[in-house]
Design a protein that fits this description.
The structure is a single chain. This protein has three domains: about 70 residues, MutS, DNA mismatch repair protein, domain I, CATH 3.40.1170.60; about 150 residues, Reverse transcriptase/Diguanylate cyclase domain (Alpha-Beta Plaits, 2-Layer Sandwich), CATH 3.30.70.270; about 150 residues, 2-Layer Sandwich (Dna Ligase, domain 1). It is built from 13 helices and twelve strands. Strands 5-6-1-7-8 form a five-stranded mixed β-sheet. Helix 4 packs antiparallel against helix 5 and helix 11 packs antiparallel against helix 12. It is globular, with a radius of gyration of 25 Å.
Length: about 425
């Protein structure tokens, strides 16, 4: 049996953990640069006049009128809270697949069928006790059924955020209550196609001839069909595959014309992606740099361009990658424009153990593994970017994302720890 544990309104819940005064009140989280609403708790979702994905400046009055509390996105906090949830789930099983930042599959092979209902409640209560994050728990024989069970657990109040598919009758009931468009893995096109031939529920789909599914929906559809019929096809992945591409492209907090500031931002982003590259023990031989103005602006002249730089030998050195990235950036930069975004992508990624060396390459001593490892060790010990390249500069406030409503990073920054009482700090 497999459990899918999914955090309820995760970003908003993280904010509420440290703000008990916001319990049972509407809370939303904004996108980068405080652009639009990307997450909301159930109280905020219940306000039908508050549209998701609308620019905040258009609906600020509506939010204030409805007493909605809004936060800038605080991904450092969310990432650490996610780790705490995953650590708690590890108490119940040695096999946990971190499917996303707010949901995980948990292998329950060690438990008997008669233990599962109480176990689901215990998982839910323990996660909430340890982290303050409310979760839903769906348990079933396959990952696809567990996913549907989790959704059903939250849908019906009497389920109390827990649903265990431990009998054939419960499996059939779950599939009957699930619309075909809500099946995990059914895309919009397939959903419309199935509905046209009167396949309206998950049970209708599960009762279809497997030959038709295989022919019309390929092996992926057949695998889903088998999962819904209680035949496991999707294994738990405890060690994620190395990414084939790593990148970032964040908008500046302000439109930039100063090449120096754009260069600093680009250097900062190279350091970020290079760190992720080393974490998965990989190297890259192709770096892509992109630069663009605000395409949604009606008053700015428009320009966008990108360039790819091929390296003779794959590398994971921040120093080497930054050097090549800035050469590319200078080639595509044009004066006279107000730039909104710079992007960095690492492609042609290979395992570090499989690097094909170049006999004629003469890397600078600053690109040595020893220097890279020393910088990583110091940053790990003393904090992100304590040791950085000079090209990153110290003017981050002039280009960084706008985060006017960001909460403190309560769990990872000493100077932002929650304090109780006294004349300063958070209460």
């Amino acid at each position: 049996m497999i459990a899918l544990v999914d955090c309820n309104s995760f970003y908003a819940s993280c904010e509420q953990v440290f703000r008990p005064d916001l319990r049972n009140r509407p809370v939303v989280v904004l996108s980068n640069n405080d652009g639009c609403i990307i997450a909301a708790n159930k109280e905020a979702k219940a306000l039908t006049d508050i549209p998701m994905f609308q620019p905040i400046f258009k609906i600020r009055n509506l939010l204030d009128k409805s007493d909605v509390t809004y936060f800038s996105s605080n991904y450092t906090l969310y990432s650490d809270m996610s780790r705490r949830v995953m650590d708690t789930l590890g108490m119940f099983s040695p096999i946990v697949e971190e499917y996303s930042i707010d949901e995980s599959f948990v292998d329950l092979t060690l438990y008997g069928k008669n233990q599962l209902q109480d176990l689901a409640q215990t998982i839910k209560n323990t996660v909430h006790k340890n982290t303050g994050i409310p979760v839903g728990v769906g348990i079933a024989k396959t990952k696809s059924l567990a996913k549907l069970a989790n959704k059903f657990a939250k849908k019906i109040v009497k389920n109390d955020n827990v649903y265990v598919v431990d009998s054939e009758a419960k499996r059939i009931h779950l599939l009957q209550q699930t619309k075909v468009k809500d099946i995990w893995g059914i895309g919009k096109k397939h959903a419309l196609r199935l509905e046209r031939i009167q396949i309206k529920t998950a049970l209708d789909f599960a009762n279809m001839p497997v030959a038709w599914v295989r022919k019309e929906m390929t092996v992926i559809g057949e695998r889903l069909w088998r999962e819904l019929n209680g035949i496991p096809c999707l294994i738990l992945v405890t060690k994620p595959e190395a990414k084939k591409g790593i990148g970032t492209a964040k908008s500046f907090g302000f439109k930039l014309t100063d090449y120096g500031l754009i260069e600093e931002a680009c250097s900062y982003y190279v350091a970020e992606v290079a760190d992720l590259l080393r974490q998965q023990q990989s190297a890259t031989s192709l770096i892509e740099i992109s630069l663009q103005t605000n395409q949604h602006s009606a008053i700015d002249k428009q320009y966008r361009n990108k360039i790819q730089i091929t390296l003779d030998t794959p590398t994971d050195s921040t120093i080497k990658l930054t050097k090549e990235a800035l050469i590319g950036l200078k080639k595509i930069y044009k004066a006279g424009f107000r730039y909104k975004k710079v992007g960095v992508n690492l492609l042609h990624i290979v395992k570090r153990s499989e690097i094909q060396t170049n006999l004629f390459a003469t890397p600078h001593k600053s690109e040595s593994d020893a220097i890279t490892q020393t910088i990583d060790t110091l940053n790990s010990r003393f904090g992100k970017n304590k040791i950085k390249l000079a090209t990153v500069g110290n003017r981050e406030k002039e280009w960084a994302l706008i985060k006017e409503h960001r909460s403190p990073r309560f769990t990872t920054q000493w100077n932002e720890l929650l304090t109780i009482g006294g004349q300063t700090g958070n209460r």
